[in-house]
């Protein structure tokens, strides 16, 4: 099977993750950038083992994101947008990307303060990225559609 993360110079899953997380600058609306920082601060305050991976993803996203006052991209996943994505080639799924989610999971809602949400925010249609999972595994995430919920 073809692996889009595999190259002739690097082999193995560890190298694929690092290539996927390399510095890829993204533009985010200022409000989303500010909320990402708040989510990261919440993770630091929680100091729980399950927030370690989320902190890593959020910090990486913030390090590569540039806050912009006027970002109007119809294919950019931002808070409040419906994002269609696939994980490991499974059937496409769609969810509403939100910054504030309740304590109970709701079908069709993707909290940005989750590994999936933190990975999706700032991605564009057609973009691929490694998705870190709670169990330590790594999946392949592809964004196939974005629709603003306005």
Account of the 3D structure:
Strand 3 and strand 4 form a beta hairpin. It is globular, with a radius of gyration of 15 Å. Helix content is about 30%, strand content about 25%. The longest helix is centred in the N-terminal third of the chain and has 17 residues, at about 30-45. With about 150 residues, it is α/β, with parallel strands linked by helices. A 5-stranded mixed beta sheet has the order 5-4-3-7-6. Strands 1-2 form a two-stranded parallel ribbon. It has 4 helices and 7 strands. It has helices spanning about 15-20, 30-45, 50-65, 115-120; strands spanning about 25-30, 65-70, 80-85, 95-100, 110, 130, 140-150. The model is unreliable at about 1-15 (pLDDT under 50). It has a single domain (about 15-150), classed as Roll (Chitinase A, domain 3).
Please outline the helices and strands.
Elements: H1 13-20, E1 26-29, H2 30-46, H3 51-64, E2 65-68, E3 81-87, E4 93-98, E5 109-111, H4 115-120, E6 128-132, E7 138-148
Parallel strand pairs: 1-2, 4-5
Antiparallel strand pairs: 3-4, 3-7, 6-7
